Every structure is written in structure tokens, then in C-alpha cells.
Amino acid sequence: MFIELNYRSGKAAYLQIAEQVKYAxxxxxxxxxxxLPGIRPLAERLEVNRNTVAKAYSELEKEGIVEIITGxxxxxxxxxxxxxxxxxxxxxxxxxxAALVQAHHLQASEDEFLDIVRKRMKTFSKRDLRAKSDSKK
Amino acid sequence: MKSNDTAIEIKGLIRGYAKTDxxxxxxxxxxxxxxxxxxxxxxxxxxxxIKCLLNLLRPHEGSVRLFGMDPKRDDVSIKSRLSxxxxxxxxxxxxxxxxxxxxxxxxxxxxxxxxENQLIDQFGLDHARKVDQLSRGERxxxxxxxxxxxxPELLILDEPTSGLDPVIRREFIRTIIGTYQDADPExxxxxxxxxxxxxxxxxxxxxxxxxxGKEILTANTEVARSRYRRLRSRFKTEPPKxxxxxxxxxxxxxxxxxxxxxxxxxxxxxxxxxxxxxEIKEESLTLEDIFLINAGKQGGQNVIKN
Lengths: 137, 306
Description:
heterodimer; A: mainly alpha; Arc Repressor Mutant, subunit A; 2 domains; two-stranded antiparallel ribbon; B: alpha/beta; 4-stranded antiparallel sheet
């Protein structure tokens, strides 16, 4: 797990941890059944109050993203399908919001913005194709 | 003896030396299980306050309570529940580490020898070494082991990491989080006095900034970080003059404007936007930034009180 905290982000530390786990679960880098690091080792590594990690984990449990099993630890839920789509959308919305704010500051119009989005999507799909054809060689 | 509402309660503390007041009316509360930061520059009154907590000094005015008890009247029962790591670790040069711990343990009802051995190994120390042959960092490590083995409810740290190398510093902080706090998170309280704030950024639940013996700011860490914002904007030409009571600091560099804003970031952002900036970025202040904004104000009012 590559959790990193940024104290300048304006987001509470426990939320940063919870969101990064959600992101990893939604994007497939954490799979159902995978276990999260224990509260103590993660707190030590991040140099945060252990209560911060505990709060993040209980938040994730409340949302059904992880299951906390006594004696085993914190496991990514097998049934995390309901969250997946909504979490994915929420994460995406946040990223788009940030881009929209930037577009506003740069005084880009809606059309200009959407144009850029389409262009970038094409660029990525080209790269994707190239990567696939490379891997076939 | 159990379940006090506060681990530390300081009310209107005044304590001076000769003609100067080192602490001029300080109040704060530390709840059990909290990690409380006590921030101030050198000479701000931190150590004087701690000495009042430890019954090494008596308050001239106001009161100090630990677990609801008076440090003088209940000296023995308070001391059995806390440990103190001072900035300069007193050692008895003729003692070995082993003898030093035996000496410390003789004052304690409880001493976790298993923990002692585990930490000795973890820090790469050796019981047979003479205490006066230890480096500054190793002395702090020995003091930390000595403070943790009685498994106290309250750990008071006075400038614990100043003068330590980064490796020992990190190990120190991780030991506080893991070995100390994690063992009984509801009841293990840390009160840390320091000016090296960034090292404790992730640990501190709540803090007080003290300057010239006066409380400048007391706040919950997350609340403080969300209220103190930095707005950085860039313009086509010279930045406009933005005025608002919420702006704590303004600096201009070329076409860039850097504002520190308390509470009303959105309002100030709207003011900036009226001048059509090329770019505007918002971030939170770190605890150290918040300290820098507040220390040196010399007894200003509390900006955030909760």
C-alpha cells in the first residue's frame, strides 16, 4: 500500500488514508481479500497518531469497503461491488472538479475544456493501442 | 483513581523568576488519550510550565492539576502515573545502563522488563555500557526506555528531539506511536513541548502555542489546518492590493501574490478573482506554518478557540 499524507491538502489525515484505500480498491490495485497493513505498523510508517489510522479503518468499515476481523486484521470486502461504481464516480468527479476549477482560473471555455478532454482521451487510447501491439511482438 | 476527565488541567497559571514572569496566565486542558502539542520558541515559558506540572516549581497564581490532583499534595500518586523525558537527560556517569534502569525501577511499582529488553535490542544498545559513554542520541533513547517501562498513563516530553540525528529522531517518534500509544490508545496521553513542530505534525491532536508566557492559540490540529489557508495567485501584471480582515499575511513577489487567510478563504478568493488572476492555488498551512504565523505576535489574542 502506497499511502501518503499531505498536510497541505486541507483534508483531514484520516480521510486521506480512507480515500487512498477506496481508490486502490476501486481501481483494482487492492483486491477483495487483500489485507491492509495493521494499525500500528501503518501509523509508525506514516508517523501519525495511531488513532488517525484507527479512525480511517473504522470509516472504511462503516462504508463496507473493508471488514475488520479480530485477530486477522483489516480485509478488503469481498462484496465491495456496490461501492465500486459510486466510489469510482465520486473519485472521478473530484478529479474533474479540480480540472474545472483550473479551467475556470485559466479562463478556458466549456468547449475548449471538452475539446481538451476529447483530445487527451484519444491520445491515451492511441498509447493503449500501441502498448497492446508492442506486447504482441 | 480511574476515569478522570482530564489528564492535565492548567488554569490561569502565573509563574515567574525574580522580576520577570515566565508564564503569564496560561490555561489548557489535555484529555486522556490525546497527544497534545505545546509549542513555543526558546524561552517562551514551556519548561517553566512543565516544571509546575512536575511539582519542581509552585505556581504563583492559578492552578495545575494532573488526573484531577494537585502536584504538591498528591506528588507520589501523580508521579506513579507519569513519566518525563527532559531535554537534558540527567545521568549518573558511573552507572551502566543496567544499573540505571534498576535505579529507575526502584522508584516504580511497575516495570516492564520485557519491554526494556525489547527496546534495548531495537535501539542497538547494550545493558553493560556505561551511561557516560553514550552519545546524545543514545542518552535520549535510554531516557525514553526508562520513561516507557513503567507504562505510565501520561508521558511528558520536553524538547525530546532537539539535537538528535534524523535516524534516531524518527525511531523516537515511531516508538511513541507504536510502543507507547498503541498499547492502550484510550488512556495513553502524550504532552510534548517542542519547537521542532514538523516532526510531530501527524501525532498532535490538539495544541497550544505559547509566546512570552502567554497563550497565543489553542486549537484542534485538523480544525486549525482547515482554517488557516494559503492562497497563491499569479497575475498578468503587478498583483492587486487585496484587503480583508481575514488576511494574516501578505507577500508579493513579482506578479505573484501570496496570502495567508484565516477562516474566510472563500471570501478572499472571490476578491482575488475579481482581478482575474491567471492562476490561483489554495492549500492548508502545516502546523509549523501556523506556528510561524502566530509566534512572535507577542501575546496576541487567541484566534481559534474550541
